Amino acid sequence: MIYPGFLDLRLYDLLYDGGYELPYDRYDKRKEIVIEELKKGPKTTKELLECSGYKSRSTLISKIIEPLIDDGIIERVGNSRSPSSYFQIKR
Predict the structure, then answer these.
(1) Which of 1, 11, 20, 30 gets the most CB atoms within 10 Å of its CB?
(2) Beta-ladder partners of 75
(3) What torsion, rounded to 10 degrees, do the Cα atoms 71, 76, 79, 85 define?
């Protein structure tokens, strides 16, 4: 029953209904790109910079690489300061 002066507001649960997917932000897509590249084989930081679209090494490391390492998806092989170090999917 709706009374005069009241608002009839109906909210539908779109997540439960299955008609709505959670939107991905731009970093999730870039993480997926990096993971797909690493599935092809180990890559250096420079190679990951080229495929991810980032221009800054430090931004790539802080936004993509470190969260993936923390989640246990990838690992670094070699010293972090060495240019010969590379990343690979964790086995």
Answers:
(1) 30
(2) 88
(3) -150
Helix and strand counts by DSSP (H, E) for the chain: 5, 2
Give the whole-angstrom CA distance, residue 73 versus residue 90.
6
Handedness of CA 85, 88, 90, 91 (dihedral sign): negative
**CA–CA distance, 75 with 70 (Å, rounded to integer):** 9
Domain boundaries, the chain: 23-89
The Cβ-side half-sphere exposure at 22, using a 13 Å CA radius, reads 5
Residue 35, C-beta contacts closer than 8 angstroms, at least 6 positions apart: 68, 73, 74, 89
Mean pLDDT, consecutive 10-residue stretches, the chain (91 aa), reads 72 54 56 90 93 90 91 90 88 75
